[in-house]
Amino acid sequence: MDIYQSTIRPILFSGLKTDPELLHNRTLALLSWLSSNQESTLGHWVKGQLQQRFCLNDGRLEQTLWGVNFPNPMGLAAGFDKDGVAAGIWGSLGFGFAELGTVTFHGQPGNPRPRLFRLVEDKAALNRMGFNNLGATAMAARLEQLKVNRLQVEQLKVNRLQVGINLGKSKVTPLAEAADDYRSSFGLLRELGDYFVVNVSSPNTPGLRSLQDASQLSLILDALQQENVSQKPILVKIAPDLEWNAIADVLELAQSYGLAGIIATNTTIRRDLLKTQRIAATGKPVTEEAGGISGAPLRQRSTEVIRFIWQETQGTLPIIGVGGIFTAEDAWEKITAGASLIQVYTGWIYNGPWMVRQILQGLLQKLEERGMSSISEAVGSGSG
Hints:
The structure is a single chain. By secondary structure, the chain is α/β, with parallel strands linked by helices. Helix content is 39%, strand content 16%. Strands 3-4-7-8-9-10-14-15 form an eight-stranded parallel β-barrel, surrounded by four helices. Strands 5-6-13 form a three-stranded antiparallel sheet, with no helix packed on it. The longest helix has 17 residues, at 20-36.
């Protein structure tokens, strides 16, 4: 067991009894400083140390999707870096890509605190953040500066981290005007992301999940594709709680609108799989607390959804798998079910920064055991 799991995590999770959101913000502030100062003497040294410890480069892990090269299949899921403040450092922590956001056209504070809770017994988290972010204009300005810095330092362009941008609806925007809201954000950011995600599946914005309905989603996709003059890959992120026929409707829309892929899945509103009965911070039963559950309880359902999508589309629609990934075995399960790429968030919080490298090492071992020369050969190999 590494030092994070044996020493640091117990202090952070139990010893300090600190609000999880406060710890998250402090971590992000440090990573933001590193991202902004990586060309300083200290920043350059720290970045080198991070790369030495956390990165694993191997050609067998590379894939090209939508004309975008991913140095490895491990990505940071949306929700961790909502404003892209640490966009320049995620690659040094071993990730092959990072999905920024969720970002909305209008900046917004999100839901009242407390709104983030650890469910340690379940290796899970409950969040009802509510798309708190500074808005699309602020993210565009930050990413523009990062783009300038990259051009100044040419070597950063070699195997650089790929950036996804997750788009959500502003809370102040009526559901009937959702398509214009998504299109406005995309218009500001379309040249700054390698791929884009339509998030209509968070349970923490009133009415948002209704936009997964085919009639509503088609309006959003139509608006985005009209704006998509650069032919950027656009994906849609779906909830794990959808019925099979509703997922099939989304897949039909995705294919008719030429979407690049599906992200499966967002957090779940189910509570029946949890061991945790009461949230200590509020004293209320977990069944009375609003929000979405991420982490280990989501693992099986998200894999089932991935396998369903792969089988329904016969592997023609790339999938990014997310939900309950803690180990190489979890990652392999998602990949062989049909996910070309995978994302982590809650697992990374629980297992620490060494997790990415450990999973990548485990994936390479599984390739060797099966005589496969590339991770792409494993995609969907367990879905029949």
